[in-house]
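Posting for a labmate who doesn't have an account.
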Amino acid sequence: MNVMNALLPNLVHIGAILYLVCFLFRNQLMLRSFAILADLAYTGYYWAATDQPLYAAMAYSSLNMVINLFMISRILNDKRPSYLTDNELKLYQGFAGMSPGDFRKLSRLGVWNKADETVTLTMEGQPVGHLHYILDGEVEITKSGRPIDVSPRVFIGEIAYLRGTPASATVLAKPGTTYISWPHGALQKITAQHDGLKQSLTSLLSTDLAAKVARS
């Protein structure tokens, strides 16, 4: 009991220290976990510091804890792997560094296609409305009349997407080619809402573009 009586006046200091510590973490799970511990300490102080508990202060601390618990559940859900189709699994394996949550957002937005005949994905000098990723099959790329060799597992239309310019090359998907397409407008909207997804996708596109330049 004496230990408890000695601890109670210091709960406000413990809570403040825990709040200071939480801001040292970049990891959102650790940051929010320490914030919850800080609010627990504050709640104990508000309950016992005066003759009448400080209910209003306790309510706000409790609300902070509920919000942080909710955000922790969202973070854990984003990290949770989910069932993937064979195509999605192959796609995810090529998207190194992208979190499972960001990948789910991206894959839900895309439309899978399998070419029954030759399909024109981009036409040199013409506007581009979709970003494509070739998973399997064969594509024919020509730029200024010069053929360019590429293998599957590449983006198509990444320059047009990044810079908002017309297609820099003509790309034909041969019959049997499996690819996924994302409309520019929807892709720009979702990346504007999710910084992590935007950074991951930009990194993937930049790496893909650098590899193409190195091969050309």
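Reply:
Got it, the structure tokens are right above this. The first strand starts at residue 111 and ends at 114.
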